[in-house]
């Protein structure tokens, strides 16, 4: 009898609350802990990334004055015209592009803000592309 009532109400039989985080909540929590340690300054700005399912975006930010120094994305003409085979190769092209734009702006050393994403796949590929372009981090 008790089992039927539990099934009807959709209640957890052990009366425990499900404390697991969703993917986005977990990423946001990790992102906040990363941002506590990484601060962009004029000498060493922050390279922040955003990864959607289809595109990838990167920007170099000076947090002291709150200004974006350089930005690049997979939607930029240089990357879109390259016709990359997959998203990992596309991310590497974005990394090279952001590195070139940072060099033009006079930035050589940065702090890498992975925004809570795992350092794997497209995030790692973007970082490798930025290193190839001459950024130090």
In short:
Helices cover 41% and strands 17% of the residues.
Structure overview:
This protein is α+β, with helices and mostly antiparallel strands and 137 residues long. It has one domain (39-137): 2-Layer Sandwich (Nucleotidyltransferase, domain 5), CATH 3.30.420. It is 41% helix and 17% strand. It has 5 helices and 4 strands; from the N terminus they run H-H-E-E-E-H-H-E-H. It has a 4-stranded mixed beta sheet with strand order 3-2-1-4.
Adjacency order of strands in the biggest sheet:
3-2-1-4
At the fold tier of CATH, the topology name is Nucleotidyltransferase, domain 5
Order of helices and strands: HHEEEHHEH
The major pleated sheet works out as: 4 strands, mixed
The 3D shape can be described as globular
Q: Radius of gyration, rounded?
A: 20 Å
Uncertain ranges: none
Do you know the CATH architecture?
Answer: 2-Layer Sandwich
Helix content: 40-55%
Sheet/helix structural class: alpha+beta
Number of domains: 1
Total count of helical runs of at least 4 residues: 5
Alpha carbon gap, first and last residue: 63 Å
Strand-helix topology:
Elements: H1 2-9, H2 23-37, E1 46-51, E2 56-62, E3 67-73, H3 77-80, H4 87-104, E4 111-113, H5 122-132
Parallel strand pairs: 1-4
Antiparallel strand pairs: 1-2, 2-3
Throw out a few tags for this protein.
137 residues; alpha+beta; four-stranded mixed beta sheet; Nucleotidyltransferase, domain 5; 5 helices
């Amino acid at each position: 009898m008790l089992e039927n009532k539990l099934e009807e109400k959709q209640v957890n039989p052990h009366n425990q609350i499900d404390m697991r985080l969703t993917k986005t909540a977990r990423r946001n929590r990790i992102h906040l802990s990363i941002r506590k340690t990484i601060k962009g300054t004029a000498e060493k700005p922050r390279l922040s990334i955003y990864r959607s399912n289809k595109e990838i975006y990167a920007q170099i930010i000076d947090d002291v004055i709150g200004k974006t120094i350089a930005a690049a994305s997979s939607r930029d003409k240089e990357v879109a015209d390259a016709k990359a085979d997959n998203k990992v190769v596309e991310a590497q092209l974005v990394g090279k592009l952001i590195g070139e734009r940072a060099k033009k702006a006079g930035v050589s050393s940065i702090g890498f803000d992975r925004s809570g994403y795992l350092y794997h796949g497209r995030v790692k590929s973007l970082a490798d592309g930025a290193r190839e372009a001459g950024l130090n981090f």
